[in-house]
Amino acid sequence: MNEDEIRKAVLESVKTVAPDAGPVGNDTYLTGSEAVLDSVGFVTLLVDLEGRLGNGVDLSTSFMEYDGADEASSPFRTVDSLAAHIQRLASTH
Questions:
Q1: How far apart are CA 90 and CA 57, in angstroms?
Q2: pTM of the entire predicted model
Q3: Which residues of 78-92 are buried (b: 16+ CB within 10 A; e: fewer)?
Q4: Could you state, in order of their start, the residue ranges of all structural domains in the chain?
Q5: pLDDT tens for residues 51-87?
Q6: For residues 66 and 72, is the Cβ–Cβ distance under 8 A?
Q7: Burial of 62 from C-beta contacts in 10 A (0-12 / 13-18 / 19+)
Q8: Cβ distance 57 to 51 under 8 Å?
Q9: Residues 40-52: tens digit of each pLDDT
Q10: Hey, what CATH topology would domain 3-91 get?
């Protein structure tokens, strides 16, 4: 699966988990003060994505291992950064 396909899966998952979020694009925030998801919605997004991708990428563990020290560089911050993070995880398997 390439990064564009992963990005499409992330966008679809966000729309499924947060149907009232309004327009969702590549720069949509998933974490932080401008996020379209609350904490439960974010965890639900990770679980939904793991199911959609079906390629053994363990996003929940990846999130738990993330120390969150620098929110600006978080791989979970936006749709784009999450898609790139998933691509990196997938390429290591």
A1: 6
A2: 0.83
A3: bbebbbebbbebbee
A4: 3-91
A5: 888 756 666 666 656 655 566 678 889 999 999 988 8
A6: no
A7: middle
A8: no
A9: 999 899 889 888 8
A10: 1.10.1200
- Position 83 scores a pLDDT of 93
Contact indicator for 79, 28 with CB cutoff of 8 Å: yes
Residue with tokens 């639900």: 44
- Residue 31 near residue 81 (C-beta atoms within 8 A): no
Tell the residue number behind the tokens 């965890």, with chain if given. Answer: 43
Alpha-carbon separation of residue 44 from 30, 40, 54 (angstroms):
12, 6, 15
CB 58 within 8 A of CB 13: no
C-beta contacts of 35-40 below 8 A and 24+ residues apart: none
Residues counted in the chain: 93
